[in-house]
Amino acid sequence: MGLVTDVDDEAEAAAGPRLGVPEEPEELRIALRDELLAGGDWRSGFSDDICIGVWLWSHWQPALEPAGCTREDFVTIVMSTRRELWLWLLGDRRWEQYVTGLAGRVVRRLPAAGTS
Hints:
This protein has about 120 residues and is an all-alpha fold. The protein has one domain. About 65% of the residues lie in helices and about 0% in strands.
């Protein structure tokens, strides 16, 4: 039985860190959506404290930093999901859909991903 656990642990480590799905940040979603609908710049919305990337980083940092992902790397990945983020902001995509898709993208882009 111990051998199976060891194999499972190795497979899980090779797959990358597990990034949980935090509760949907409703107030942040509304603030960011309102800012963008008012003509705010996407880039400025991603660089300050109303940024969903900064908010998610506060939840995922303990798993991502040891895997070699910096806050700047993470926010860059979030910026690459603008379309999906927009769909969530407008209510055309559920939070779980957006955040699990983002988590998969982040894990695939980790420096250690795909190495043995």
